[in-house]
Q: What sequence folds into this?
């Protein structure tokens, strides 16, 4: 029996609720709905295809923006009336430019300090902070107190130079210094790499998409 056949379509009146998570961070990216045909196309294309309730038609996520969701895993719930998809996002998932559609919504008192369910929450929070600084820089609101904004306004050549310098520092620490020094230099490298990626309107999700595509090619 196929996945499409297992779903209790009558219970959901032909529209299956689908939660999409980032395969990398497990952050909830968005909620959508699928018809049987949308699910079949998603399986065939290995990209998320929804039924758009506003457009009243099949809609592949990212068909106009290019910010598709590459499917890595699907899991049906115990009642066969809801689906979770773990996917690799190619670019921001939200049409407002956020990694997750829920980042753009109203926030209520949080139970946890971290803004994501990422296994590396500090990196995820840092990436989101840099993204916000990038938006401010794009709008011309540059603060002299923010090193990130100063770096973003310095130009691609300077940012690339900093990544190169930090890469050398990591290599030197690995050869001649302690583990603590190596992790510290590696943290500096990751920070400057994230800034450079943001300046090119890229993020870790784009890197994850490349790695996922390479893994699929090997298999």
A:
């Amino acid at each position: 029996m196929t996945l499409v056949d297992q779903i209790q379509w009558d219970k959901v009146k032909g529209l299956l609720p689908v939660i999409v998570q980032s395969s990398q961070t497990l952050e909830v990216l968005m909620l959508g709905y699928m018809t049987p045909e949308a699910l079949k196309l998603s399986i065939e294309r290995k990209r998320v295809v929804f039924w758009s309730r506003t457009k009243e038609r099949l809609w592949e996520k990212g068909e106009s923006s290019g910010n598709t969701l590459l499917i890595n895993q699907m899991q049906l719930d115990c009642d066969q009336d809801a689906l979770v998809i773990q996917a690799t996002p190619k670019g921001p998932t939200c049409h407002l430019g956020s990694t997750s559609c829920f980042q753009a919504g109203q926030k209520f008192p949080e139970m946890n300090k971290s803004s994501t369910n990422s296994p590396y929450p500090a990196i995820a929070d840092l990436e989101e902070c840099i993204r916000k600084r990038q938006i401010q820089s794009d709008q011309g609101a540059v603060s002299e107190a923010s090193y990130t904004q100063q770096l973003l306004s310095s130009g691609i050549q300077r940012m690339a130079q900093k990544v190169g310098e930090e890469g050398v520092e990591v290599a030197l620490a690995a050869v001649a210094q302690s583990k603590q020094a190596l992790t510290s230099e590696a943290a500096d490298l990751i920070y400057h790499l994230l800034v450079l990626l943001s300046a090119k309107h890229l993020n870790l999700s784009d890197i994850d998409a490349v790695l996922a595509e390479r893994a699929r090619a090997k298999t």
